[in-house]
Amino acid sequence: MKTKAITMTLICLIFTGLFSGCASKSEQESNGQQSSTSQPVALAEKAEEKVLTFGSVGYFYNEQWDPAYGWDGWAIGSYGVGEGLFRLDDAFKAVPWLVESYQTADNKTWEFILRDDVVFHNGVKMTAEAVKRCFERTLEVNERAKELLPIQGFEASGQSLKIVLSEAATGLANDLTDPLWTVYDAEGSTDFAEQTYYTGPYIPNEFNPGVELVVVKNEHYWGEAPKLDKAIFKTVKDADALTMAFQNGEIDVVVQVPETAIPVIQNAEHLKIDTSTGMRTQLIRFNMQSPAVQDAAVRKAISYSIDRDSYTKVISNNTTVPSYGIYPEAFTFGGIKNVTASVTAFDPEKAKQLLADAGFADTNGDGILEKNGVKLSLKMIGISAQKEMLELSQVLQSQLQEIGIDLKVESMENISEARKNGEFDLTYESYVAGSTGNPQAFIEYMFVTDGSNNFGKYSNPEVDALAASLHKASSEEEKNEAITGITQHILDDAPFIFFAHKNFTCVYNSETVAYFHAQPSEFYILDSSTEAK
Amino acid sequence: MIRAAGKSMGSFLVTLIGITALSFALSYLSPGDPAEMWLTENGIAPSEELLQKTREQLGLNRPIPVQYIAWLGDLLQGDMGVSIKSNRPVAQELIKALPHTLLLAVSSMLVTMAVAVPLGVACAKYQGSWFDRLIQLTNYIFVSLPVFFISLILMYQLSYKLKLLPVIGAGSLKGLILPVLALSLNLISVYIRQIRSVVLRELQHDYVAGLYARGVPGRVVFFVHILKNTLTPIVTLTGISLGVLLGGTIIVESIFNWPGLGKLAVEAIEYRDYPVIQGYVVWMAFIYLLVNAIIEFLYLLLNPKLKRIGG
């Protein structure tokens, strides 16, 4: 009995020791490393080296360093590595960046005088010839480049670059801010995926796609000297882990805070929020071939039933702003300032009235309206990963129930098949309505009769004509007028409801970050102005 | 020996063809068009004409059996294809993720064995004691908690509250501790229960009473005879767990941002990256067959009688 007791005690002691040993070992390891190695090193690094760590669920997605590969240029530009001839400001205005001046007589032939003091990361000078070769390679590699700009040819001489277009483009400066037109040394590399030489304030250093990448200061940067020595970009797919890493101080800046993380993350100490409204828009698309939503009164009644303010405040945790037009207010053609909008507020009573006037009535008393014996029952589809879609659909279901519309919601992993096959009455989606501040491409693929993304089969000859006129516009005013005209038709016909604009919301630790601002275009996350404490 | 090796190789090939054909068919049955995804990822609006061209380019326009046979032919020549998402060879993608998964799997297995074997044996030896009951209770808790929940709790307590470990530690040894703990806690609970029950069953055998009757000391009976006989089921269990772990632990790898095979597989599925999905399936098949072969070899080592029975 005594032996048994002793043995039991020993076993307990061994395991207690094992666990505490593990704990103290890991504690030593962590504390020890923190106090004797990594922490002082980190502190010393912080004291000598200015380092910031950026974390995101999906913004740092480039698979390689070739800006002409897919959308990779977008990510590469955001690390402060790549730059274009122009850069967008907060109002989506294109500001000359690698160019000193530019001129055009007919919006077809554009002459750019490039800066004379810019060198690529390999020390080679940026000349007009280098930019010409760069754009030629991009056009050859990326199909989208050909779709974006009707380029006929280039002429290069010294620092003068001429771009000749096959049709007029009044907003070429804005179009050139698309990071696909990142300037790089097209003759400096043989394997662009592995190494490409850019002009930006930071140079790629370490790279582990989808996990982590490091950029270091470009000592020979032509512009304002970069204020960080190093920046680390970490991809953390799990939103909870990303939130904890920020709260824990492992991440200094969270790029685009996940909506679900907002309630938790806003309680973090030393938190600063950087937010601005961009071109991303939350929308409902109607299937214009579906008998159930053929009547514009039904589509407008649904628009009246969306409580945009509540969506913004409660469902999206203030990461969106309400919308009654198509584009954000900040644009000349944005909001509803130059158009006549029928829906300007949440108004279920008006919705009921509209439906009654259109001949819908609840004849059998089941709470659902009918017309010609057909119940007003709709099917909405959306992507299951979009949590706000699930919440909105629940709210919408109850709102529509009140006005006598039955809404069935199907969330799926991928809606592309169902959308393409027209297996919906309405969809919940999110689109960027022209990332460079120019919505021309968006208009063409969303609203034009045969647009590649016109899945609801909306067709209005006047919209098609106005969209075609955008190609011939000789001034920005003319172009804005056409865009406003299209907006008016879309609001009248209601094939879509653009109910909110997404903010680009980042948070940063005010104890480690001295200055950070991400522009609403989402193109620039790190630049020379970003500063660590 | 040669005949046995040939037989194993034959069964390997049959299994490989079976599972890869099945996964090929399932991938194609699932919704989502890889050509459309490829175009969208490359920034091109997917018109019907372009989709057709892309399908031709990716070889997706041919009938599924033809695509499968072509893929199998390439595989036999050592070519696993190119990832649709990253444009890199699939083999390169797998090889890059493999060391991370190996490190995580082997570390978790070692921690599991180091803790579960002594605790399982002790629980059996002191069956019904407060110690046994305490361990059983702890086991129930960890077996019933999902791994993602354990991961988040560990992260919250050890990283956020106590600041002992980093939340994101991919690539560092310190960063290995949390994912290993998250995986091991569940495994340890399973193993303790299994080991305890195997040892208890062994204790009821007549030969144990015989050994005691012959005056063999209790320690020798326990550590030499009983433990040796419990090794076979433990080896089987270890083999199964190791197979699962080497396939990449999707949830833990995703939460801790561990760049292993599980994370690679999930991303490939999300993207409909068929070549990577198929490469992953081949790897899983290979691992399970390898682990099975090793287990069978260990059975023979542990119990030579099997060899004689087998002829």
How is this structure best described in words?
Chain B: It is found in: Cell membrane. Chain B: This is Nickel import system permease protein NikB. By secondary structure, chain A is of the alpha+beta class. Chain A contains 15 helices and 21 strands. Chain A has helices at 2-48, 72-78, 128-141, 143-148, 172-175, 239-247, 262-265, 296-304, 308-315, 348-357, 387-402, 416-420, 440-446, 461-469, 476-493, and strands spanning 51-56, 86-88, 94-96, 99-104, 109-114, 151-157, 160-165, 202-208, 212-217, 230-235, 253-254, 271-286, 320-322, 370-371, 374-375, 377-383, 406-412, 426-432, 496-509, 513-515, 531-532. In chain A, strands 1, 8, 9, 10, 11, 12, 13, 16, 17, 18 and 19 form an eleven-stranded mixed beta sheet that branches. A four-stranded antiparallel beta sheet of chain A has the order 4-5-7-6, with helices on one face. Chain A has a two-stranded antiparallel ribbon with strand order 2-3. In chain A, helix 11 links the parallel strand 16 and strand 17. The radius of gyration of chain A is 27 Å and the shape is globular. With 311 residues, chain B is an all-alpha fold. Chain B has two domains: 2-76, no CATH class; 90-310, Orthogonal Bundle (MetI-like fold), CATH 1.10.3720.10. Chain B has 14 helices and no strands. Chain B has helices at 2-29, 34-41, 48-58, 64-76, 90-125, 130-144, 147-161, 174-203, 206-213, 218-246, 250-255, 261-271, 274-302, 304-310. Chains A and B meet through helix 1, helix 4 and helix 6 of A and helix 5 and helix 7 of B.
The percentage of residues in β strands of chain B lies in: under 5%
Mind summarizing the main beta sheet of chain A? 11 strands, mixed
| Uncertain spans of chain A | 1-46
C-alpha geometry of chain B: flat
Query: What integer value in Å does the Rg of chain B equal?
Result: 24 Å
The assigned CATH architecture of the largest domain in chain B is Orthogonal Bundle
Radius of gyration of chain A: 27 Å
Number of strands of chain A: 21
Could you say which overall geometry of chain A the principal axes of the C-alpha atoms support? globular
Return the CATH topology of the largest domain in chain B. MetI-like fold
Keywords (chain B): Cell membrane, Ion transport, Membrane, Nickel, Nickel transport, Transmembrane, Transmembrane helix, Transport
InterPro entries (chain B): BPD_transp_1_N, MetI-like, Opp2B
Subunit structure (chain B): The complex is composed of two ATP-binding proteins (NikD and NikE), two transmembrane proteins (NikB and NikC) and a solute-binding protein (NikA).
Transmembrane segments (chain B): 12-30, 102-122, 134-156, 176-192, 234-256, 280-302
